[in-house]
Write a structure and sequence with these properties.
The chain is α+β, with helices and mostly antiparallel strands. It has helices at residues 16-27, 63-79, 96-100, 102-112, 121-127, 150-161, 211-216, 281-294, 353-367; strands at 8-12, 31-35, 51-52, 84-85, 89-93, 117-120, 137-141, 144-146, 165-167, 170-178, 181-189, 195-199, 202-205, 224-235, 242-245, 254-258, 261-265, 303-314, 329-333, 342-347. Helices cover 25% and strands 28% of the residues.
């Protein structure tokens, strides 16, 4: 019977998904090498607003993503204690139109298993005095906040303890393929300048919005649509809870408190190249405007930073803004397209990275003839600081 240690898997991408996958596969006993062209978490993972999703944002129009978020939300609380501020979130109705959305929102949350508590105007203002005094009603959900880097570092630290090799600043130049089978990658180490081949039984493409570029190296297509959004951080922590606008997903409809800052997000458009992101000034102004509609002081607070990040959305290339695409994830075994030994995992969110990794590791193990279950739902992760000691 095949043993996990007999097989080597190369993971391309050192964001949350690649980190969680390295942890899952190493825990199952496989040999793992993760390569990332920059520092780990330096892509999309290191640029999100740090929300531990309850799934509430997607409960009405994207229930699959909502269910994934709430399930992973509760798993992550158990396996990564201390990494989250479990401050909950409020969906707030400012206008009559917002308030009219309330029944659909509550129905969607109930169908997806997301706990809710309806609060009156007075109750909401007692919890969050800086809310727009015109708030009409609010709904409390189990959102939380997290440092964008710390959870992935916990995955990577635990993976390294179990034998995984993590190689930042190592860029994939070529996916090696012979007779329709991928057998490794050619990489350049940007620290030493040296190029080398790393052989593998399976290569997993976990490059997020860059996954289409990696897939193109072996002649397969991944229906990925990089969708950037602008985020703005302002000085001052003006709320204790995550504040969401109670309406269908739109621009500037969330404020995430992070330490002494408040992060307003986000806009949405689509691009072909995730390395060519703009920071449109009108998008930055819109974040102040929309954030100020929920929490007026946020709209006037000093700017601390503004940036853009590309979401890896799965869907048709003709998507116009990215809002119409689901936030769920998709795992592709490219053997279905005539390329053996090559798997892509893309889409999803930082909150769902562990679940994405479990699905992908199951695919990898089936391909290798291994019957080894995932244990990542129960194993408590090492602290993020352990990544630098191992």
């Amino acid at each position: 019977m095949a043993k996990p240690a007999n097989f080597h898997v190369v993971i391309v991408g050192g964001g949350a998904t690649g980190a969680a996958l390295a942890h899952d596969l190493a825990l199952r006993g496989l040999r793992v090498t993760l390569v990332e062209r920059g520092e780990v978490t330096s892509g999309t993972t290191g640029r999100h607003h740090g929300l531990l999703h309850s799934g509430g944002r997607y409960a009405v129009k994207d229930p699959e993503s909502a269910r994934e978020c709430i399930e992973e939300n509760f798993i992550l609380r158990k396996i990564a204690p201390g990494s989250f501020e479990l401050n909950d979130g409020l969906f707030v109705a400012i206008t009559e139109e917002d308030e009219a959305y309330l029944p659909r929102f509550l129905e969607g949350c109930e169908a997806c298993g997301i706990p809710t508590q309806v609060l009156s105007r007075e109750e909401a203002l007692r919890l969050e005095p800086n809310l727009n005094p015109q708030v009409r009603v609010a709904v409390r959900v189990p959102d939380g906040t997290m440092d964008a880097m710390r959870l992935p570092l916990r995955f990577l630290a635990t993976a390294k303890k179990n034998g995984a090799v993590v190689r930042p600043y190592t860029e994939v130049l070529e996916v090696l393929k012979r007779n329709g089978t991928v057998y490794g990658v050619r990489v350049r180490d940007h620290v030493t300048g040296r190029e080398e081949d790393i052989h593998a039984d399976v290569v997993v493409n976990a490059a997020g919005p860059w996954s289409g570029k990696i897939a193109a190296m072996v002649g397969v297509d991944v229906p990925i649509r990089p969708s950037p959004g602008v985020l703005v951080a302002v000085e001052g922590r003006w709320t204790n809870m995550v504040i969401n606008r109670l309406h269908p997903a739109g621009d500037g409809d969330i404020i995430v408190p992070q330490r002494g800052l408040s992060i307003i997000g986000t806009t949405s458009w689509v691009v072909d190249d995730p390395d060519a992101l703009d920071l449109p000034e009108d998008h930055v102004r819109l974040m102040f405007e929309k954030g100020g509609e929920m929490v007026p002081v946020v709209g006037k607070a000093p700017l601390w930073a503004a940036w853009s990040a590309a979401r890896p959305l799965v869907g048709p290339r003709q998507a116009e803004t990215g809002r119409e695409l689901s936030r769920t994830f998709k795992c592709f075994d490219h053997a279905d397209e005539g390329v053996e030994g090559f798997v892509t995992i893309t889409g999803g969110k930082a909150t769902t990275a562990r679940g994405m990794a479990e699905v992908t590791a199951d695919v990898v193990c089936r391909k290798l003839g291994l019957d080894v279950p995932s244990r990542t739902r129960e194993v408590v992760l090492l602290p993020h600081t352990a990544y630098y000691r191992l």
